[in-house]
Design a protein that fits this description.
Order of helices and strands: HEHHEHEHEEHEEEHHHEEHEEEH
Bound molecules: pyridoxal-5'-phosphate
Number of strands: 13
Strand content: 5-15%
Strand order of the largest sheet: 2-8-7-6-5-3-4
Radius of gyration: 21 Å
Shape: globular
Structural class: alpha/beta
Number of helices: 11
Largest sheet: 7 strands, mixed
Length: about 350
């Protein structure tokens, strides 16, 4: 570590992304990427680009992209914020709505980045433990004295609250920011809670194109909320990185939204493959939490999760293992193509046979 580091930089524990190894070809089921390509309109757009397109600065307001997103949800453009991945939108939310020492609340098991941002901005974190079955105790989320961050569906459990439940949390915390991170909502039977932004000025909904829209390589994320709330995010953006979305990202985002049929076909395919994979794992004795996402969180009564993780990696299948309390006997398995999941099941079967 350099002697020049600030105390903040010295003390922070950065987020650790899932591996992206290049040493050989893996079946990659570890970072919840989409196994299918982005919409064909995205490919057409990229094929038609020239270097000249990059000479000028992009539109810092991202108006065309925000308008396209607003049209999808019957919103006005002022109710949509665009960022470089949902992680960046989250960062602006932590910056805009909290001062050093302020309190934030989130579940003990959730997306790891909330803790990293809370530490980066020196906030006080209160973890609210999930129930034994990894569901959220709604009664914990009443009259809290700080901001609330919820991944819904939650990660890595895959469990989803209904918009009615989210509304209960909003009603019980009218003067606190409630952030609902909907990275996986497109894979869920439950609806987005975006319509609630019309009635609750303390709700910020965040979505991403990294998972359901197969654009993790592009970095596109969105915030939805009351215009006054989003103005807080804009203030941070214009104080930090006004051109946060490059020209290609802006256009790719619009192209992706232009093909809703492709989007729903791919999403339905992943959900169908998820349910088939869940069945196959359960036949092998695994227990899977009820997933509303593009991954399964699974455990086996007699298999050590770390050992299975290692075995799969040796067999060129990458999944995610979190060596953390409560979940260190679980693996998170992204839903790939039908063929990839067949290979997974075959390899897991082989592991079980070799072990006995
Ligand atoms: C993947 C993920 C994100 C980050 O998405 P990006 O848009 O790629 O930054 C945010 N929240 C949750 C819960 C995620 O799983």
């Amino acid at each position: 570590m350099s002697r020049l580091l600030s105390n903040r930089a010295k003390e922070i524990t950065p987020y650790v992304p899932g591996e992206q190894p290049k040493d050989r070809t893996y079946i990659k089921l570890n970072t919840n990427e989409n196994p299918y390509p982005p919409a064909p309109a995205v490919q057409r757009l990229l094929s038609n680009r020239t270097a000249e397109d990059l000479r000028l600065y992009p539109d810092p307001d991202a108006t065309e992209l925000r308008q396209a997103m607003a049209d999808c949800y019957d919103l006005s453009v002022e109710q949509v914020f665009a960022g470089g991945g949902s992680d960046e939108v989250l960062a602006y939310a932590f910056m805009a709505f909290f001062d050093q020492g302020d309190k934030v609340y989130f579940p003990d098991i959730t997306y790891g980045f909330y803790q990293v941002y809370a530490d980066l901005f020196a906030l006080t974190v209160h973890l609210l433990p999930l129930a034994e079955d990894f569901t959220i105790n709604l009664s914990d989320y009443r009259e809290l004295d700080g901001g609330i961050f919820l991944a819904n569906p939650n990660a890595p459990t895959g469990i989803c609250l209904s918009p009615q439940d989210i509304e209960k949390i909003l009603l019980a915390n009218p003067d606190q920011l409630v952030v609902v991170d909907e990275a996986y909502i497109d894979f869920s039977d439950n609806n987005t809670c975006i319509p609630l932004i019309h009635r609750y000025d303390n709700l910020l909904v965040i979505q991403t194109f990294s998972k359901s829209r197969a654009l993790a390589g592009m970095r596109l994320g969105f915030g939805f909320g009351n215009p006054a709330l989003l103005d807080g995010l804009e203030r941070m953006k214009y104080s930090f990185n006004p051109y946060n979305l490059d020209k290609v990202s802006l256009d790719v985002g619009v192209a992706s939204l232009s093909d809703p049929d492709y989007f729903s076909t791919v999403t339905e395919q992943i959900v169908e493959t998820r349910e088939r994979t869940k069945n196959a794992l359960e036949i092998l004795g695994f227990h899977c939490l009820p997933s509303q996402t593009n991954f399964l969180f699974t455990t086996h009564p007699t298999v050590d999760a770390a050992q299975l993780y290692e075995y799969l990696q040796e067999q060129s299948i990458l999944v995610r293992y979190f060596p953390r309390p409560r979940i260190d006997q679980y693996l998170r398995v992204t839903i790939g193509t039908k063929e990839e999941m067949k290979s997974l099941i075959a390899t897991v079967t082989q592991f079980l046979q070799e072990r006995t």
